C-alpha cells in the first residue's frame, strides 16, 4: 500500500496540516481531564466558586478549539484522500487503456472494473482514517499513560496490565480477518462477472428461458460473498464488546484500587476522576488503532490488486525508436507466422505466409475456429506473432508506433460494437474531424443511407448502449461506415457482412470496390458468395493454410475449398 501513497505527494501540504490539526486536537483532549481534576480538587473541595467558573470557562475554550481542529482535520483528510482516489482512478484507467488483449485476458474485465472502483475506494477510506488515527492513537496512548502516571504511578500499573490484553485481542482478530478480507475482494469480482454477463446477455438468457438458472448463479455468488462478509462482521462485532468488557473491568479495578489510594492519601479525588478519563482515552486510542489494524489489511489487499494492474506491463509496446509508417502503407505480408495464445499448447496459427497487395482484395475463408479472426488481430498488433513476422510494406508491425500503425487501418470487427450517442457521432468515431459530407458518403457506401433516413432524427438519432435499438445488419453497416470514413490504406473486414442479406452484401461489395480502389482489402467471411470475386482467397483449416488462389484455382486444387463451396452454392453458381 505504501507504494500507492506516492499518489498523495501533490497533497502533502494538506496532509501536514491535517496531522498538525490532529496533534492539536489530541493535546486538547489530553489537557481537559487535568483541568477537570483541578476543578474538583481546587474548586469543589475548598468551595471556591470563582475558580470553578474560571477553569470551567477555560475548559470550554479548549474544548471549542479542539472541536475546530477536529473539523478542520476531517475536512482536509477527506479532501486530500478524495483527490488521491480521483488521481489513482485516472492513472489506473490510463494504464489499462494501454493494455494489449493479453492483459485483458489475464485479469478479466470484471476484475478490472472492481479494481478501478471498489478497491480504490477501500484504499481511499483507509487513507482518510489513517491521516487522523496515525497521529491521534499513539499520541493519545503515550500521552495518556504519561498523564496518568503523573497522577499516580502505582495506579497506572492497572493500565499497564490491561494494554497487553487488549493488544493480544486485537492481534487475534486481525490475523483471522486478513484472509477473509482478501477473499471478499475476489468474491466481489465474481459477483461483478456474473452481473456483467447477465446484463449484457439478457436477450440470450430470456430466449433460452435460463433466467432462473442465471438467478441461481447470481444468488450463489451473492450468498458466497454474504457469508464471507458475515464472517468478517461477526469478528468485528465481537471485537467491540470484548474490548468494552476489558475496559469496564479495568475501570472497576481503577475505582477499587483508586479508592484505597485515596484512603491512604496517595491521590486526590479529582486526580482519580482524571485518571479514569485518561484510562478511557488510552483504551479508546487502542480501539481506534485496532480499527486501523483491521482496515489496513483489507485496504492493503486492495492496494496489492491495484498495484498488480499498475505493475503489469503491456505485452505489446512501441519499439524504442518507432519507424515512421509510409504515408500510404503498402502490402500486408505474413512471413511464416505462427501464433500461440498465452498458455495454449496448440498454435492458433501455424506457418502462415501470404501477401495482400494494395488495390486487391484478399479473402480469408475457413470453418469456425480455424483462426481467421486471430489472423486479422495480428495486423493491428492486438497480439504479436510468436514466430515469423507481419509486415506492412517492408516494415515489421512491431517496429512502427501502434498509433501510426492503427491510423493506417480501418477495422470492422466481427462483433459490431457501437457506442452511446448519435449515428453521426458513431461514424465520426472513425475520424474525429470528419465533415458531414464525409459521414454521409461513408454511410452511402456502407448502404446505410436508407435506414438512417427512415429513422426519426436521421443522423442525429440516438443509439442506445451497445446499439441495441438498431438491427444486427444495421449495426454492421454503421461499423463499416465508421471504418470507411477514415479512408485508411488497409481495410480489415472480420466477417462483417454476415448479417447482411445477399442483395445488400453484393451492393456493398460493389460500392466498396470503387471506394477502396488503391487500398489493401482483407475480408474474412464464412459465405462463399462474399469471397468468390476476391483477387486471392486464403483457405484456413485448423490454423494452417489449406489453399491459396482465386476461386477458380481453388475449385480445381483445394479439396477443403471445394467442400465449403459445395455446401453453400448451387451447381450453376459454382460454374
Ligand atoms: N483470447 C483467446 N485465448 C485463447 N484462445 C483463443 C482466444 N481467441 C480465440 N482462441 C482460439 O483460437 C482458435 C482460433 O480462433 P478464431 O477466433 O481466430 O477463429 P475464427 O476462424 O475467427 O472463428 P469464427 O469464424 O468462429 O469467428 C480457436 O480454437 C479459439 O478457441
UniProtKB/TrEMBL annotation:
Under the cellular component aspect of Gene Ontology, which terms does the record hold? plasma membrane
Location(s), subcellular? Cell membrane
Identify the keywords attached in UniProt to this record, alphabetized.
ATP-binding, Cell membrane, Membrane, Nucleotide-binding, Transmembrane, Transmembrane helix, Transport
Q: What is its main location?
A: membrane
Give me the segments passing through the membrane: 52-76, 129-149, 155-175, 235-258, 278-296
Q: Which InterPro entries match?
A: AAA+_ATPase, ABC1_TM_dom, ABC1_TM_sf, ABC_transporter-like_ATP-bd, ABC_transporter-like_CS, P-loop_NTPase, Type_1_exporter
Which GO MF terms are attached to this record? ABC-type oligopeptide transporter activity; ATP binding; ATP hydrolysis activity
Determine the domain of life of the protein's source: Bacteria
State whether keyword Manganese applies: no
Membrane topology according to the record? Multi-pass membrane protein
Report any Pfam family annotated for this entry: ABC_tran
* Stated name of the protein: ATP-binding cassette subfamily B protein
What is the organism field in this record? Paenibacillus methanolicus
